[in-house]
């Protein structure tokens, strides 16, 4: 598995996400090998975490996220270019695996 974390600074995206949630879900759910996509906000930042089967899947998620931001996030949000951290997933612990 492969994981990418994108961190942005800028205004809150809560309202943008609420208004465009379906389009974001649609964009990210079609990523090949997607295991999970998470979006969070805190400490004046927005971050997304994407976990895919492969590095290529995460690259596709980054491409789709950039396109979605360009289309839906207004310039007034002052959203920064994301800081990106990515790499091989070393360990996964989840309820799904705990029950197995």
Give the SSE map.
Layout (H helix, E strand, L loop, with lengths): L1 E8 L4 H16 L4 E9 L2 E8 L2 H18 L10 E6 L6 H4 L2
Antiparallel strand pairs: 1-3, 1-4, 2-3
Helix pairs in contact: 1-2
Overview of this protein structure:
The protein has 3 helices and 4 strands, in the order βαββαβα. It is α+β, with helices and mostly antiparallel strands and 100 residues long. The protein has a single domain (2-98), classed as Alpha-Beta Plaits (2-Layer Sandwich). The chain has a 4-stranded antiparallel sheet. α1 crosses α2 (55-72). The radius of gyration is 14 Å and the shape is globular. It starts with a strand and ends with a helix. The mean pLDDT is 90.
Shape: globular
Percent range of helical residues: 25-40%
What's the overall average pLDDT, rounded? 90
Total number of beta strands: 4
Class, according to the CATH hierarchy?
Alpha Beta
Low-confidence stretches: none
Structure, briefly:
With 100 residues, the chain is α+β, with helices and mostly antiparallel strands.
Give structural attributes.
100 residues; alpha+beta; Alpha-Beta Plaits; 4-stranded antiparallel sheet; 3 helices; 38% helix
